[in-house]
Amino acid sequence: MKKQFKLKVIISAVFVCVFSSVFAQFGQQTYWSADGNKIMEVKEGNIELVDALDPAKTAVLISKEMLTPNEGKPLDVVRFSFSNGNQKVLINTNTKKVWRYDTRGDFWVYDLGAKTLKKLGLGKPESSLMFAKFSPDGNKVAYVSEHNLYVEDLASGTIKPLTTDGTSRLINGTFDWVYEEELDCRDGFRWSPDSKTIAYWQIDARKIKNYLMLNTTDSLYPFTVPVEYPVVGEDPSHCKVGVVDITTAQTKWMNVPGDAVQHYIPRMEWANNASELIIQQLNRKQNESKVLLLNVASNTVKTIYSETDKAWIDAKSEATGWTWIESGKKFIWLSEKDGWRHIYAIGLDGKETLITKDNFDAIELNLVDEKNGLVYFMASPNNATQKYLYKVNLKGGNATRVTPIDESGTHSYDISPNGKLAFHNYSSAVVFPLSDVVSLPLHKKLSGGEPNERAKLMTLSQVEFFKVKTGDGIEMDGWMVKPKDFDPKKKYPIVFYVYGEPASQTVVDRFGTGFNRLYQGNMATDGYIYISVEGRGAPAPKGREWRKSIYHNIGKINIKDQAMAAKEILKWDYVDASRVAVWGWSGGGSSTLNLLMQYPDIYQTGISIAAVDNQLNYDNIYQERYMGLLPEDKHYFEEGSPLAYAKYLRGNLLLIHGTGDDNVHYNNAEQMINALIKNNKPFQLMSYPNRTHSISEGAGTSKHLATVFTKFLKENCLPGGR
């Protein structure tokens, strides 16, 4: 009794529940203490208070005995969140995947005052609750189950449906496949600050056609698995925002301007008050972004910020939460409208202030420390392969680097809400990952920094970074791992690793760079040069023009940059131009095919995994963002697709694809297969039955994939120096 009471006092006095009203999209976010020196985390089934400076100093806040149902086992805590005031804790357990992440499961509430543990959603199917979160007053919990929104009164246990029309295709409070995949939208409802209403998305996917995946392995008779999947040229789902009254369960639909089908609403929050919503709206082409302020009572709307781009505009990066300053009069916004990704303060009156005035990109926003007048963000002005912490005055000015100058590589920071401490992670291609705790803004190391034991047992690749300038004058970053016992008088085979689309970089200075998990053995030991170069279109911090030059040009400009860089590299004395291979996954698989087929004089061997062979097959949000709309832009899709170049294949090709891929469907591979057959082009194929885009499911799959990859490479691009 005394121990429990003492723990209750510790929680109430010490913690600020940073995420109590905004439950994480997925994963468990960090709970920091109000003094910035402690966190809460799960350890051995308990929720413990941990000293950030000395992790050995812990105190059990909620024991696993408290989290044990009657006649049951302790709950396996996957995620947790506290109510405002810290008197109740919400436990997420028994989670299951919805596409990529385990966003559905069971939820329980432990009440520290009543010392009770209660399961929520009684009568609902097992593991069907999604995104449960406390009301700001701590008296209720709202959640989604089977595409309907519910609120549960914690005192009485009464469950009230707030929507009743939800079906597999009419989705309340969460999202369809494409919104989740391409806009990072999962948690689809928000409590009002006064706990009286909930704002939520409704996605109507009833007109979206199904892609029917064929499952031939899980039963004697094959069956189809339907996925609502809007391909290029198909209309998006109908999307709208409603506000439901908790007492009456009546929804008022917001008058968002424009066609509810020909737009996207990727972000929505309460505008730091209980009477207004703030949303970001993108047009279908995603080259016009508006920030709208909606008055819920009058159902009126005001545009407070807008911008257009000749290419595209990204959705606000944080999927939940809005960064407010000056008591909600202004918010922080990132835009690259002047050529760099800069940080702005935008007032509700539409006036804007440029905060970062240097000519370099803010990679991401870390924290606004309004009390001390600072903004922390990641940047790397001089090396696009790296990431460092910078700070700038909230009123605007020139930024200064916070990360020590002698720690070159890639850094990440989890900063306490008051800006006092940060969990800091650092690695490079030649430095094992290190974790420590630092004080800010001086970046003084307070604890940690020792290599972990597992890292000590690993051998780092000897990665060299370089730059190469093409005949077109494009300077590109690259990395290379040379063969072991390298002899510059010999000539070695070279294997290029590619991606080449706006979703990811390959040339980054961090741990793991230069390692190929699909190769059995060691490429350097076997005598390969392993290499990657990165051209225009990659999301590197090199300014807007670098990133957006790929608009209308996926499959063209990125492919030409790769090929022209390879052409220069093949001039190096120790590179064997007769043994050149290329491989990639997903967008990298597409690039592999395009390189092998468009530049057969450079590349002799290619391994393409899970490729988009025909851009017209892919989902509308992603592909239209970068390539335009049908019918006027159809030729860009066709001219950039590997399918258009199948007749030019001369080299050795291995196609790999999972038949259960719900992202890049197997029909991509089959269309390429047909084109190669039509043009009498021999190739090899490895299909993985019922495997998804990751090709990781099933016993032995990863090992088999690596075996196939390695065997094909060794047989068609012989290893070793000559």
Detailed description of the structure:
By secondary structure, the chain is mostly beta strands. Among the domains are: 161 residues, no CATH class; 258 residues, Alpha/Beta hydrolase fold, catalytic domain (Rossmann fold), CATH 3.40.50. 14% of the residues lie in helices and 36% in strands. It is built from eleven helices and 43 strands. The protein has an eight-stranded mixed sheet with strand order 36-37-39-38-40-41-42-43, with helices on both faces. Strands 13, 14, 15, 18 and 19 form a five-stranded antiparallel sheet that branches. Strands 1-2-3-4 form a four-stranded antiparallel sheet. The chain is globular and about 75 Å long.
CATH architecture descriptor name of one domain? 3-Layer(aba) Sandwich
Here the CATH topology of one domain equals Rossmann fold
**What is the overall shape?**
globular
Number of strands: 43
Radius of gyration: 27 Å
By DSSP (H or I, 4+ residues per run), the number of helices equals: 11
How large is the share of residues in beta strands? 35-45%
Mean pLDDT level: 93
**First CA to last CA: what distance?**
77 Å
Poorly predicted tracts of residues: 1-25
**What portion of residues is helical?**
10-25%
The strands making up the biggest β-sheet line up spatially as 36-37-39-38-40-41-42-43
CATH class of one domain: Alpha Beta
